[in-house]
From TrEMBL:
<dbReference type="InterPro" id="IPR017871">
    <property type="entry name" value="ABC_transporter-like_CS"/>
</dbReference>
<dbReference type="InterPro" id="IPR027417">
    <property type="entry name" value="P-loop_NTPase"/>
</dbReference>
<dbReference type="InterPro" id="IPR003593">
    <property type="entry name" value="AAA+_ATPase"/>
</dbReference>
<keyword id="KW-0547">Nucleotide-binding</keyword>
<dbReference type="GO" id="GO:0005524">
    <property type="term" value="F:ATP binding"/>
</dbReference>
<keyword id="KW-0813">Transport</keyword>
<keyword id="KW-0067">ATP-binding</keyword>
<dbReference type="InterPro" id="IPR003439">
    <property type="entry name" value="ABC_transporter-like_ATP-bd"/>
</dbReference>
<protein>
    <submittedName>
        <fullName>ABC transporter ATP-binding protein</fullName>
    </submittedName>
</protein>
<dbReference type="Pfam" id="PF00005">
    <property type="entry name" value="ABC_tran"/>
</dbReference>
<feature type="region of interest" description="Disordered">
    <location>
        <begin position="295"/>
        <end position="343"/>
    </location>
</feature>
<feature type="domain" description="ABC transporter">
    <location>
        <begin position="2"/>
        <end position="227"/>
    </location>
</feature>
<comment type="similarity">
    <text>Belongs to the ABC transporter superfamily.</text>
</comment>
Length: 343
């Protein structure tokens, strides 16, 4: 288990991590989420003792990192895939790490096999693609067969087969009772991988809860209705004390609508329906909703128009909803630009 106690890191005027306290339990995959600059990497570096906290502390199953005699056998981490000497072969890189932690050389070949790099074991790291470097980083993390594993954006650069592989690997490691802590900006990927979520924004804890609870608490459900008689439906909804927002392609979205009730309402008023479908916000939407006040970097591209459109009025004639917060800086544009570090 990893435990953070009021962990704080200040770089000059920047409070990168602000009194973070949470525990990463063993036996589950814990996803670590936050917008760009939220403090995820800084937190992970402090867990590994690579950065000294300004205040607070981290313990690994009750012990400090500095108290571990052979840390690789206790905690394995992938923080920066390209942090490998370019002139070193994959095997030599791992051998060097193994020797410094009294790990037998045969384990090097085992982990190379495990991550699918045996064929390129004697190739120099400078020729490695990002995906190959990620695999080498994962091999380094697994080298000491540690109880605690930490991965910073591990699927970055992996192809679809590689993504499924790392997902299966992380779930398998957790199923063995290990502590698995993983950061990612791929919300859809986290939904498939993580059992538990820790969300931070501007260095502060925003959420620490099971994935299912996070989605339930942070997503809004609605019912999408498509009808060639929208005026009749809006009138019926209004009389039932409900309202609708404009949805995509002329559909209507009824917030918190009950599917059966809406179907019966339409039938009672002899309104033809072309669609009546439940809508549940995705993890990405839930996440963006939660962190909207904590986004440090904003994308310059226009955001998609929300249900009522920017400043638009709801279709039932009710006053315009307050405009939605600006979209956080991820999505394809963010991914294409890659992680923008200032450190
Ligand atoms: N070495 C450093 N010197 C100065 N400021 C730093 C340093 N490292 C991080 N920061 C700042 O601390 C804040 C947190 O950065 P950090 O890289 O930990 O965030 P992150 O959540 O990992 O972001 P990303 O998703 O972009 O990697 C940012 O404002 C960043 O600019």
């Amino acid at each position: 288990m990893i435990e953070l106690h009021q962990l704080t890191k200040r770089y000059g005027d920047t409070l990168a991590v602000d009194g973070l306290s949470f525990a990463v339990p063993r036996g589950v995959v814990t996803g670590f989420l936050g917008p760009n600059g939220a403090g995820k990497s800084t937190t992970m570096r402090m867990i590994l003792d690579l950065d000294r906290p300004t205040a607070g502390r981290v313990t690994l199953d009750g012990r400090r990192y500095g108290q571990l005699a052979e840390p690789l056998s206790y905690i394995g981490a992938l923080l920066e895939a390209k942090a490998v000497h370019p002139g070193r072969t994959a095997r030599d890189h791992l051998l060097w790490m193994a020797q410094s932690n009294r790990i037998p050389a045969r384990r090097v070949d085992e982990v190379l096999e495990l991550v699918g790099l045996s064929a390129v074991a004697r190739k120099r790291a400078r020729g490695f693609s990002l995906g190959m470097s990620q695999r080498l980083g994962i091999a380094s993390a697994l080298l000491g067969d540690p109880e605690i594993l930490m991965f910073d954006e591990p699927v970055n650069g992996l192809d679809p087969e590689g993504i499924v592989w790392i997902r299966t690997l992380m779930k398998g490691l957790a199923a063995e009772g290990r502590t698995v802590f993983v950061s990612s900006h791929l919300m859809s990927e986290m939904a498939l991988t993580a059992d538990h979520l820790v969300v931070i924004g501007r260095g502060r804890l925003l959420a620490d809860l099971p994935m299912a609870d996070f989605i339930k608490q942070n997503s809004r459900s609605s019912v999408r209705v498509r009808t060639p008689q929208p005026e009749l439906l809006l009138d019926a909804l209004h009389r039932a004390g409900l309202h609708a927002d404009p949805g995509p392609d002329g559909s209507l979205e009824v917030p918190d609508g009950d599917l059966a009730f809406l179907g019966e309402l339409a039938a009672d008023h002899r309104i033809t329906l072309h669609e009546l479908s439940p809508q549940q916000a995705s993890l990405e939407e839930a996440f963006m909703q939660m962190t909207s006040d904590s986004v440090e970097y904003q994308a310059g591209s226009p955001r998609p128009v929300g249900p009522a459109g920017p400043g638009g009025a709801a279709v039932d004639g009710s006053p315009a909803a307050p405009s939605a917060p600006p979209a956080p800086a991820w999505g394809s544009d963010w991914q294409a630009r890659g992680k923008q570090k200032e450190n």
